[in-house]
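Our preliminary data section would be incomplete without showing what the modeling component actually yields. Below, a chain of 512 amino acids is followed by its predicted structure, encoded as tokens that our downstream tools consume directly.
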Amino acid sequence: MLSLLVLVVQLFAQGPNGSGTYYRNANGQKGKSLKTALFQIISTHKDIGYKGLYDCYKKTDKRADGKVWDMYSNTTNYSFTDNNGGYKKEGDMYNREHSLPQSWFNEASPMKADIVHVVPTDGYVNNRRSSFPFGETNKPTYSSNNGFSKVGPSSVEGYSGTVFEPNDEYKGDFARIYFYMATCYENRIASWALNGTAYTVLDGTPYPAYKKWYINMLLRWAKEDPVSQKEIDRNNAVYVCQQNRNPYVDYPGLEQYVWGDRQSVAFSYDNYDGTNPNPEPTPDPGPDPDPGTDPDPGTDPTPTDGYVFSKVTSTADVVPGSYYLIVCEGEKQALAEKNNDVRGNAAVTISNATITTTVDVSGKPRQLLLGGTAGAYTFYDNVDKDYLALTVNDNKLQSSTSATNANAQWTVTVSSDGVATIKNCKFTDREVRYNKSSPRFACYKSPLQTVSLYRRVQSTGIMPVKPSAADSRVDVFTVSGVLVRRQVVRSAALNGLAKGVYIIGGKKYAVE
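Predicted structure:
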């Protein structure tokens, strides 16, 4: 019976992104030991060879339009055969870029052809990068088209030499690649510090491997540019090509367990919690606003400094009757009041996937009350007494006093990394995005800055809902205050939940 129980547990213990039990041997490890355990898992992989990269790129780096996905330039449009000949300017051809310069490891295998860090990029921009370390510069001496990538003196405290700054859109991608390289080659990386310009970022040890200023920057990049679907898809394709994975893509925030503020927390491969540890909550009774499925537009929220909004990471958490902020995390801006035919922006502070803010006053975010049903949601603004709408097929974001037409209705989906796709039901090729060049929220066809939804939790702590005698229904929260189930029958509240600790009616319950 015991053996059967162990087998059943293993069958149900599965890692993210189809990784199954791939990371099982790292279970329970912390900090430096966790990095070593991951090294033992991912270091054994197939060497596809330097020439083999081009074939694999067709699986790992293909855009939706079939072209090459270039992370150094946003103006290239390469077919996969555009990798021959020379280049005189940006856009002439692409080549294989070692995000960690190959001179640092003396062009040795298998690092030279490790597709996790060898990515296709514009040849000219790649050449301008040279072997400079990644970094940030506020005085660029060279910029690629549209200022997408830059070269110049470092503006990051701790280093003043020349650096190459990738675009904000891919800084997190490269940070997770560098975390991978320090992990996959833990037994080699200490010696690389003596080669070329490697001394600028490597500290000559297996752990932490990078210098303090570099670790701080990479951790910040990873946090500000979280794991995207593009990275997830690439990671899965890499596994097909060379039979290993990047754990820092599979487990968003894992770098905090190895180098950051979660080094004392044991890693759980099948019940992973990437949030920062929180103290046990102090229940604070009080209902969520209007929990019904048909929100009452006449209910005016009172502006307060105490409103807490938690990041939505699943479409299941898009619940009519709740208040939401629409947020561009990369720029730390939330949708605010009207600004002619678009929506203005208000700065927010994001901490541990939560935002605490005043709302519904000038210069602050607007919380929007979600109504309607899946496929035809509405966002109601209690200040202006109207609904978010797109009334013309243009880069606009207007409002409507009626929720019955498609202009004021939206489809909403949320990816596992928290990117929200909010598409208009009338003009279905337009979605809500943030334009950092001309700061505003509007509806675009082009790939501007993505948005996330933050759902209003409570003003302080967790607020359990006391069930009535008639229906005995309760809300279920995680210990960090995120609502996972709304108004379910108490007897079935824990059914089907993942392992963890939950708060129901102010009491803690453990699911084993």
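Residues 192 and 359 are 51 Å apart (CA to CA). The chain has ten helices and 24 strands. Preliminary results of this kind motivate Aim 1 of the renewal.
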